[in-house]
Amino acid sequence: MGRSSVREIWLLPLAAVLLGIALQGAAAAVPASEREAALAVRAALDRADLAGALALIDDALTRFGTRDAEMVWALRVMRGEALISRGRPKEAKHALAFELPKKYGHGETAVRQMIMRGFVAMHEGDFPAATTILEQAKALAIAHQPALLSDVYMPLSQADASRGDEYAREAIRLARKYGRKASEVKALAALARRRAGQQRYAESIQWGEQALPLARSLRNDKTVQQIEGNLGWQYFEIGDYEQASELFTSAEATARRIGADYDRVAWLIQLGNIHYQRRDWVAADRFNREAAALARTGKYPQLGYALANLARISIELGRFDDARRFNAEALAEKRAHKDEEAELSSDIVDARIALASPDHARAQKLLDGVVRDTKRKLTRMEAESRLGQLFWRMGRADQATVHFQRGVQAAREARTEVTNAELRFSFFDSAAELFDAYVDFLVAVHRAEDALSVTEISRAESLEEGLNVRSVARSFDARAISKQNGATILTYWLGRDRSYLWVITAERVTLHPLPPDTTIAKAVESYRRELLGPRGTLQGSGARGEELYTMLVGPAAVPRGSAVIVVADGQLHTLNFETLVTPAPRHYWIEDVILMNASSLQLLARTGVRPKRDATILLVGNAPPPDPSFPPLPHAAREIELIARHFAQRATVLTGPRATPASYQAASPGKFDFVHFVAHGVATRKRPLDSAVILASDGSKSYKLLAREVIESPLSARLVTISSCHGAGMRTYAGEGVVGLAWAFLRAGADQVIAALWEVSDAATPKLMDRMYTGIGAGRDPAVALRDAKLSLVRAAGLERKPMYWAPFVLYVGERRQ
Description:
5-stranded mixed beta sheet, 35 helices, 10% strand
């Protein structure tokens, strides 16, 4: 566990993932026969009511156990299945240790007994024996019970690793063929788990997300929480802590409610991991202590991971004696379970304790061993980063540089294995500690520009890949980029212990230290709350704005009249720097500078040639409300009318029922110089590329123009304006910034995008946009024209001078084309 992305994560045992299918509560009526009892038990098992199933079995065998009936034997097999599902394989082996009468040797009970014996063999680690047993079950099922084949192929996919994919897919196919939804859920969950074990997290998520709604439709509480938890693990692995937290929280609550303590321990550990990443040591400690207590009581194998996490937390709290004790206990647990990769994580913890002692020789020996032995790129990443820190402390800067660079390379290699581009957004969140340490080291050894280059490694990776910026060398000339853009560039890096501001001009690059990320984030959030509330005026919120200006911009000493490009980081992505307040006399910074925003220096280095053509615009909006949650915009028609006047016959206007996503695509948006939307907008935190412009429905497709669809239509527009709420997006990723509609239009190829950070005023926006296009028509750059339009409101009388009316819109810079 730790910000460095090496997490103490426990994989659910095979039987728990593959057998648990969930509904609570046994049948209300007492079964009148062994057949009724067997059907009731099967229903309980398929719904993972394990306690109810065992109670039914005990009652039925007490009443009917002396009868020589196949359903009585089936009840005994189902006892073994329930015990395996409860994580009690030794008891299951004893329960299954009987010979079935030959007359039942071709029936369903015979096949299920073989399947359960195969599971027992896997729990004992004897996979060849498990494969042999399950192959016998497969032959019997082919000959006599074909509907059970999906239940055979599913464990075979784990027992026979060489044919795992083949068997898992066959299990899914057969479950669907025979309409066995419970078996389909098991098989989908098995394939998701297999992909997770291969560190193919994006594919694991895809299979898990197919399984989850199916499990929910069956009201399978136990399997629902298992799939949620395993999906949470995958999102955690790729650094998407927000999505992971929601899934783990839901899974833990359900596991607690149904008494699934074996699973609950895992979800508590993972919730502790997330709080560790957020540096909430108290919460992280609480979750892991609860997990450890449950694991001790149940003698569960996850105990070692909870203890290892407690060791890491103790290091953060400076309690090194506790850290040693917890780590020693954890290592003993992991060795008992022969989990070599988990042992390596404990070795990293041991090395951190040694580093604090300081016992540099021991720390180096441990970390070298981890680098040598690990099979996980993210584990190697942390070990290399810790070696970099070790050699830094030893004053051996050259060796420190080598190990930090190797850590970065391991992180980038791990990222390339995430094949789903959308899931890559959050990846560098998991490597944040590595980059923090590397940047701190380079600054400490007076290599400020090299530190700036390191910050660029993780910035806007997905955006740049889509724009083919990868062809631009990672070694860049920051001064040349400033000169090329005619602007002072303020590049921020928010770190755990300290943050930094690089001020880049055509003549020099200077570095200024800033407070830690938590201090900055708290100040930004406080100012945003005041700015958007009743105190959001120069008089009411000016003091906070001035404090933030002094903290973030004051060190740069930017001359009045300058063009400024901000490359933000972390919480700064949610701040419109124009609203910062300069002192003596107080005024908003917008009155001093022309402000733009960019995702990275590399993106600013990208240049191109603009097509020669008369300025044209595609105007889309004022659609009829597609549902009651999107009421009419009273001033939308006026905004479209005002803008269209600036282009005369060169405006293509799609309004009313014609303003559909399909008509936008059909209009060939790539041929226009300007694209402007006047509509509602929605931003989603879970799936940023599901952020959308709300248009009209044409009856055949959705009324949402999704960000993921925007990407598919290449643009060469000079400017795209999204005159709607939250057009910039809501979800911020390390390096990538805010991902949403603005990001998508830049990714599609727009030079610049204007989008809103918060709710916009339908009444004030038409006036603002009319004045902006007046400036553009007079030959001004969009950034200048937008600023001039905003200043007309800033200097006006009445409510419109408040930042909540003019400040939501920010301008993002993509490619610069001449």
